[in-house]
Design goal:
globular, 8 strands, 14 helices, Rossmann fold, eight-stranded mixed sheet, single chain, alpha/beta
């Protein structure tokens, strides 16, 4: 794992609609875009970073509203805009085609990028997409209580009133029973969530749950009509998008390629980094000369 301050020191800045976006780029080889989840940031990938950068040119942004990126309070946070951010960042870095590894909120951003790739629109061509636990199907997503509160009319009050203790209780509950973050790691996650007034925009970011329902046909259809290889690596014990989501994936996605991690929760890249890295590299190696 890379300490959070060291991670921040490695980062650069990219402007998206005039707002500074933090990203880390290291390694050489084929480009690999990493898209993190809610409510954390690109540091989520730090436990598999060395293994990824040994094989890829890895680019990992903090999406707008997250981590060390700008968190404008009046911004209209949309998943399609986050896809624009990712595509724009890669274009600015001279990347025209990439593999994608995504998690949670980032899964839906990747689904939008996949839809565009299927349509042949936009500057970014995808070579493959590997999904980790996330709400690929709105009907299988089981939000936590705090997420339900954030998206309710009292949401603007819930975020700013969140305490460190309440965050830890809710956040640790989505991890497996034997793979929960240590105290110091939880402190770093809390710092990421609260950085730069982050709690004041969580009720805006959480609107992604409604977007998933609104655009279900497009984003589920992107999986069903994909022109590039897909793999799902999923922690089975995740109460939000674990084994029950995998069952739906196998029902709806043609020739599903699934790696199920039986003792892992919602953050497999953190809880079982070696297994996730092995699953990704095996996926890549099966389709490259």
């Amino acid at each position: 794992m890379i300490p959070l301050d060291d991670w921040r020191a490695r980062g650069g800045r990219y402007l998206h609609r005039g707002h500074p976006i933090f990203f880390v780029e290291e390694g050489s080889g084929p480009a690999l875009l990493l898209i993190h989840g809610f409510p954390t940031a690109s540091w989520d990938w730090s436990r598999i970073w060395a293994g990824l950068t040994a094989r890829f040119r890895v680019i990992a942004p903090d999406l707008i509203g997250f981590g060390f990126s700008a968190r404008p309070r009046a911004y209209k946070y949309r998943l399609a805009d986050q896809a624009d951010l990712c595509a724009g960042l890669l274009a600015e870095r001279g990347v025209r085609d990439a593999d994608v590894l995504a998690h949670d909120y980032g899964d839906t951003v990747a689904q939008e990028l996949l839809a565009r790739s299927n349509e042949g629109t936009g500057p970014l061509a995808l070579r493959s997409v590997c999904f980790l636990n996330g709400g690929l199907f709105p009907e299988t997503h089981r939000p936590r209580l705090v997420q339900k509160l954030l998206i309710s009319p009292v949401g603007p009050l819930v975020g700013p009133l969140m305490t460190r203790m309440a965050f830890e209780r809710s956040f640790s509950a989505v991890f497996g029973p034997r793979t929960k973050p240590a105290h110091g790691e939880m402190n770093a996650f809390w710092r990421l969530v609260t950085e730069n007034g982050g709690l004041r925009v969580t009720h805006r970011l959480i609107r992604y749950m409604a977007e998933r329902r609104l655009h279900r046909e497009r984003w589920v259809g992107a999986l069903q009509r994909s022109r590039v290889p897909l793999r799902l690596v999923d922690g089975a014990l995740d109460p939000v998008s674990g084994a029950h989501m995998v069952a739906r994936y196998r029902e709806l996605v043609p020739e599903p390629d699934v790696v199920l991690l039986p003792d892992v929760g919602h953050y497999p890249q953190w809880e079982a980094p070696e297994a996730v890295l092995a699953a990704l590299l095996a996926f890549v190696d099966t389709r490259r000369p």
